[in-house]
Amino acid sequence: MPENKIFAENLIPISKNEVIRFSPLPADFYIKLGEDNFILAGRRGDTALQDLHSLKKDSSIFELFVHREEYKNCVGATLQIAEIVITHKEISDLKKVNFLFSCSEQVFKEISELGFPHESLSHAQHATRSLITLVAARDDLNSLLSLLAEQDDELVKHSMSVSAVSVAIAWQMGMTIQATLEKLALGGLLHDIGMKEIPPEIAFKSRHLMNASDVKTYESHVGRGVDILSKMPSVPTEVIAVAMEHHENALGQGYPRHLRDVKMNPFSKVVALADCFCELSLKSPTNPVPRTAVDTVKLIELAMGQPFSKPAFQGLKQALGITGKAKGFRKTA
Ligand SMILES: [Fe+2]
Ligand SMILES: [Fe+2]
Questions:
Q1: Per-domain residue ranges for the chain?
Q2: Distance from residue 222's CA to the centre of ligand 1 (Å)
Q3: Torsion over CA of 188, 192, 196 and 200, rounded to 10 degrees?
Q4: Domain 92-319 - what CATH class?
């Protein structure tokens, strides 16, 4: 029927497990029965989905569907739950990381695919606040990274890891003001948002297998990220600088502008190092055999000639407990 066809085009999927958490429902939710055939499973404002018990048990249903324009309500509701989950003492770290990961996945989808620039920024800020809380609650950065390493979506995994490592480095460097950490964490989370526009066959191709055209396409993620972020109102200038400069380094060997240390934004110096560290130490399609944190630091220092900001590198070593004693991390008001 024609109305079903319009229906299908305007609906987007959302995980059943995420919808089950909502009370009240932040949107109308639908179950897909077949191509262009959906039935209502719960209305916005209802306390729960209809037939919740049988829906929970139905292993053939993995996702429900929501109107495109109501997806932002779902992201907002998920982030509100995240704030409670992240600070809950009896919830395991793994569950906290899983939850925050699904929040970040939703935020990325919102920013890059759904066009809700205003809500997206506020949702990304919410997500980074929760991520900072997660980093702040522990002295052991490696254990947090190992939990993140188990996640699926490569871009979200990398982005959350870079954000967490950036915050940990900054803390060791004495950057402890909450507003500063939030901007830095946001820059870390969104630094590669332009990768959403790079075809997977290039995004996940090893650098040494790329031809000149592949390299050009790959490196365009920097400009694409700046474009995406510039369309969102009120994005801090530091966040856009991070997207622009996260592949630069202190020696002027990076891209796209071959900036040297003195020309780089202070936030970019931290994220550029965190980005390189995560790239080399986390498992990914382009890094199938990841190095340990210690080996990664040695590689950056010895084989690469440590091309990053010296204070940031020292901060990384301290955050990993490699040099001296980590100062620890406590959230400042
Ligand atoms: Fe990048
Ligand atoms: Fe990156």
A1: 1-71, 92-319
A2: 6
A3: -120
A4: mainly alpha
